[in-house]
Amino acid sequence: MAAETTQFADSLRQLDPASPLYATQIIDSLLAAAQAAGASDLHLQPTPAGLDVRWRLDGVLQKVAQISRGGASDVVSRLKVLAELPTYRTDTPQEGRIRIQESTSKGQAQTAVEMRVSTFPTLFGERAVVRLFASEDRFSFVSELKLPQEIETALQRALVETNGAVLLTGPAGSGKTTTAYACLRQIARDSRESRNIVTLEDPIEVAVPGVSQSQVQPAAGFTLATGLRSLMRQDPEVILVGEVRDTETAVTLFQAALTGHLVISTFHAGSAAGGISRLLDMGIEPYLLTSGLKTVVHQRLVRKLCDCSTPLAATEPLGLTISQSRTTTGCDLCRHTGYSGRVVLAELLPPLAGPLRQAILDRQDTSELARLAIASGMTSIFHRACTAIESGQTDPPEVRRILGFVDELPPIHQPEA
Q: Is 160 helix (H, G, I), strand (E, B) or coil?
């Protein structure tokens, strides 16, 4: 554990649980420290001894401190007050939001920091998780995402289209929403806000200038599918659907894509080809995919090696020979984890034409679609992972943590150059 984390834990222990300001001081300190550390999530896990405090840095949970049992319930209650949630309801899950106005370094302007709070009843009390959204000016445009150049170019080209679907795929925590917001800002900026851009989200994570954003309310019957159908009567040109979760939403999305609208959405899938297979499994007709899809990007985030890393002998991760690699060491800068920041790995499905198009129409499985995509020129995410290892950006254990092992993956042989 890094020295500053240890010092922070010590400072929390020095607070007086008997003080009426104890819960407020704890929460203020935790939220400020998590934000300063760049954490994406803050976890308060109830145990017989109190609350275990952990936060997620670069996609990995790290223990920070422990709060004694005496003040644990007050700490969670304080968090619920900030999120405008009823504190007396402890037997049911709740969700709320915290919005904090912060001054800039010059003290002349303020920026809004958004946090989403989720509580859940457990055996030893309420568990709370805070999602800290990225600042509104971070990764503002596609060019700042550091995607591979050919993928960035293809995505930029797709965003000027007037119809079709752009799907951003990957597991939870792979940066899909960040990419989606960058696409929205790109379109708004390049069109000088002359295009009618609307969104349906659950929830809205960041406010985007020049975009009309809406948050669904399933309890009131305002779902993604019903909202999308209603939006079609709002004269939209660009539509962002926060996530494709069911067949009804997917069908409506592709109908919009085929009737003169550019539709952007995120989708949980294990690969670019896997995204096609999942849509087919959901009952989407193959002709809708081959006609409506403009671009399918699959992305993952791997931790980046800290500058303290050291060279390692050649190895063969993921079944491909690696000429050189580096390994973690650990220092104060990286909190002795060996990693600092993250790197995006991505693959782009080639145009749905020729054998690949026919395979979709024939409802071929994921491995066959992946093989044909690679044969059509796609650089697989596994190949990019090996390139990232060779360049010293990451290491084999981190790639295995994110992508798994070679015997669990589809064929990754690349076409001849």
A: coil
C-alpha distance from residue 162 to each of 186, 239, 348 (Å)? 14, 11, 20
Range from 1-10, 216-225, 321-330 that averages highest in pLDDT? 216-225
Rounded mean pLDDT, 208-231: 92
Closest C-alpha among 124, 33, 30 to residue 79: 30
What number of CA atoms fall less than 13 Å from residue 353's CA on the CB side?
6
C-alpha to C-alpha distance for 340 and 300, rounded to whole angstroms? 16
For 4, the 3-state DSSP assignment is helix
Q: Phi/psi at 359 (nearest 5 deg)?
A: -65, -35
Nearest Cα to 97, choosing from 85, 111, 112? Answer: 85
Structure confidence at residue 412 (pLDDT): 41
Tell me what the pLDDT averaged over the chain comes to: 88
Q: Where are the beta strands (DSSP E) in 29-81?
A: 41-47, 50-57, 60-68
Q: Which amino acid is at 32?
A: A
Q: What is the pLDDT of residue 205?
A: 84
| CB contact at 8 A, 257 and 296 | no
* 373 Cβ contact partners less than 8 Å away, ≥ 6 residues apart: 272, 273, 349, 350, 356
Mean pLDDT of all residues in 40-55: 94
